[in-house]
């Protein structure tokens, strides 16, 4: 026993031994963590983060509520089952939101997003975006005729300015920043007036948006710029409200005269509202279907992509199956799984004897054989697939030989590619090394004496193989199968080249949506489902075969 | 201390040196990354635009990236990562439209950013209708058309002259190769199912019209190999795998004229499409200045006409057409090989950008479901 104080064992430096040990262990742990830190960081950055972002993207739908905030709020009260387009209030919000979105070039993005759900919305948003100025000018022109002051940017600035509208300005700034996804911080050089904001609510919103955009995005001085056409349109909206008209009657601040002149000449302004103005631009704006789609996709999280990925769709009446002539993904998922299984099975059938030979032939022969297995493995994937194309096509090497030998009639040559057969043949060849190598390394560890012992005890060749050798090689089959199956399920280049239409996989559609249709949400949903299916199969495999029973080597 | 002084002095010196260099260059960057399609097309751009430009501007280096096929997706990814490394991207007009919609491409002012024609016609008038998007700077007109094996025309049958030969497997037996997407195929199917040319898009906009087009394609579904790369059809024709197939006219030109394959062109109902540049949105000022300088040069009348010396695509400017000359190495007259040649363009379509921007997702879903049946 060394020194003890109060029953504690002390280390050489006088600290309690427990504490000292813990410190040493902690230091060790940190050192170990430091050693794996680069790998950990790498895995997190290149693997975990992308997968999480994919999961997120498959349900994310921010673009609708962020681009049309006013519309989304107002639309909550609209009932799509009435068969009527929404109220004038919604269209006024649409005008204000869309004008600002088109200045920021966000309206076409929204159109593209909504076009995934309803055909025609892409051009509806694009063409309407071009004519928003014209709609505003219907109010701008008569207003400027009533009072020439309305032409003057400085006049507007004076009228809208005050000292107490900071909160209001910040609200509008936040909405804009959310829409473009960038900070709009900076000095606007404009403070709205609380009084005017109460009197002219629409105009103040439009003018605040204009001021923020002019100052921050365009780097111009607000007072020197003519306001957007939307500001005139918004003033038109305000001038239809009795409250505003009576407030203007008793208003005496800057611009009072011009506003009162406008009130006196209301009959010079367009009598129709914004609903009519939008309907005149494009009749689709008063179609209840269009609004039903916008309403369905107005929450910032949507199950829409996932439903699409399993051939369902969101409709105002609930979730429904898509029409038969648009169903594709379930079929592709099933096909992908079945074909991956066939490819795995053919890899086992072809790879097992090769691996057995490799493991049992004398060193010299087996290393030559090994090179033959590895050589294609080192060749580019594209080269191998293209080579298969040359072999398999109807005027290709295989068919030519068969015709020449007289096995096949010249008129009906075998169709070996541009279908599922082509995909299975080419992919089995490409993935074969992934089966042979684990099998080989497991078979290497099976002592040949076991087989001899079985035979000397009277087993036939078959019994000796089946009862003694095969069970010991099962972990190799397990490892090879998992490798081949999981690689096969995600392949897309080979099916694209030799698969035609009946031999393509779900990954081909994912690639299409990533690179061609740009529907990344749907691609993410498809990818997530594929990931879940693979994890599910892995779990089944673990339950049935047991994952401990998998070996990649001795 | 001394070390730090030296260090800061060198830094200052370096700063002065770089700003001096920038000043000397009129605030233009000296590197540019251009994105194109690779192959013969990119080679024609290098010969017609890039080499003369670098010869005129000493010290400018141009890097080429062959990513145009994935340009839209890559540009979107770069934009999300806030690190756009490309300066000028060659895309087809439909992609330019989408990039413009997504706010990924910069809007241009044709009259300010592009050179006027030698006779003073403004760029806007010279390019005319081909300026299909605010962001798009057209270079060439190409077409998707059909080629057939002239030696495989059945005895007793006349060589095909009509697009509907695609659907006539009785007179012209054998496989066909068509692109694995609805665009062009749906139009041809309707055209050959008795729909008048001017009504094609009205009909195709209805579910019944889409069914009709798929039903017509269904009559040859068993004899079609669906391609996804432009090089497939020329290869399939050369191997005798198919009797006829659609592809870009420049691919057929090189198979016929440069490789001497027994293939003939069927210009009937060729679909015109455009290819051109877009400038990515949000480039820093010095790079933007360099790119604008290059674009103004590379899309002037002479440069566009020069490109047609190397490849059989029609220049997008009206004023370039009379300057189209002979092939740079073969010495043959290029005009008769242009899709825009009057003899070839008796019956044509212009790719309907607005229509396909709207209907692409919808019809593609139906087309893919139909293919998978």
Account of the protein in words:
The complex is a heterodimer of chains A (554) and B (373). Chain A has 554 residues and is mainly alpha-helical. Chain A folds into three domains: 4-57, no CATH class; 69-302, no CATH class; 329-549, Orthogonal Bundle (MetI-like fold). Chain A has helices at residues 17-57, 63-67, 69-75, 88-103, 107-115, 121-146, 153-160, 166-180, 194-199, 201-217, 229-238, 242-249, 256-264, 274-281, 288-296, 304-309, 329-360, 363-378, 381-392, 397-405, 420-443, 448-456, 461-489, 493-498, 506-515, 520-544; strands at 4-5, 8-9, 312-315, 318-321. In chain A, a hairpin with a 2-residue loop joins strand 3 and strand 4. In chain A, helix 22 packs antiparallel against helix 23 (461-489) and helix 25 (506-515) packs antiparallel against helix 26. Chain B is built from 14 helices and ten strands. In chain B, strands 1, 2, 3, 4, 5, 6, 7, 8, 9 and 10 form a ten-stranded mixed β-sheet that branches. Chain B is globular. In chain B, 40% of the residues lie in helices and 17% in strands. Chain B has two domains: 2-135 and 279-323, D-Maltodextrin-Binding Protein, domain 2 (3-Layer(aba) Sandwich), CATH 3.40.190.10; 142-273 and 342-372, D-Maltodextrin-Binding Protein, domain 2 (3-Layer(aba) Sandwich), CATH 3.40.190. Chain B is α/β, with parallel strands linked by helices. In chain B, helix 2 packs antiparallel against helix 13, helix 3 (71-80) runs parallel beside helix 4 and helix 7 (185-191) crosses helix 9. Classes of the chains: A mainly alpha (554), B alpha/beta (373). Chains A and B meet through helix 5, helix 6 and helix 25 of A and helix 3, helix 4 and helix 14 of B.
